[in-house]
Amino acid sequence: MTDAGFVKGQSDNLSLVDMFMVASYIKNTESFTLAEVRGVKANRSGRYSYGDSAVGWVQVRRDKNLCTVKAKVTPEHNVREKQYAVSCSIDEECEKVLAFLLLLQ
After folding, report:
1. Which residues make Cβ contacts (< 8 Å) with residue 63, sequence separation at least 6?
2. Cβ within 8 Å of residue 7, ≥6 positions away
3. Torsion-angle region of residue 42: left (phi > 0), alpha (psi -120 to 50) or beta?
4. Which of 19, 69, 78, 103 could bridge to 85 as Cys pair (CB 3.0-4.6 Å)?
5. What pTM did the predictor assign?
6. Is the dihedral of CA 37, 105, 76, 66 positive or negative?
7. Other CB atoms within 10 Å distance of the CB of residue 60
């Protein structure tokens, strides 16, 4: 079920990403300029319990200092909808989020 070169994501093999790294990425990326993305929905998805029902399958691939995480996510406002795929690339040496992509299926 994992893609080539990926392993199942678990709490002991995921990159450390903190709120400052995410905020920096959102601030410096043109994709996140809409008020809706920066507002209420973004705050709601940051809640501790959000991932309990929203995040499904997670897989991880490491290549030197680059960590790529792919996951299936269900929108919190409609948990019966089909999950969509996301990918995040993190430079672990610089502690920086490099990319966050919605993967079309």
Report:
1. none
2. 13, 59, 60, 61
3. alpha
4. 103
5. 0.62
6. negative
7. 19
Nearest CA to 87 out of 104, 65, 103, 75 is that of 103
- How far apart are alpha carbons 90 and 96 in whole angstroms? 6
Q: How many angstroms separate the CA atoms of 88 and 81, rounded?
A: 22
CA proximity to 72, closest of 88, 89, 96: 88
- State how far the Cα of 31 lies from the Cα of 29, in Å rounded to an integer: 5
Compute the residue count for the chain. 105
Strand partners, 85: 72, 103
The residue among 52, 68, 80, 63 whose CA lies nearest residue 17 is: 68
The residue written with tokens 């089909």 in the block is 82
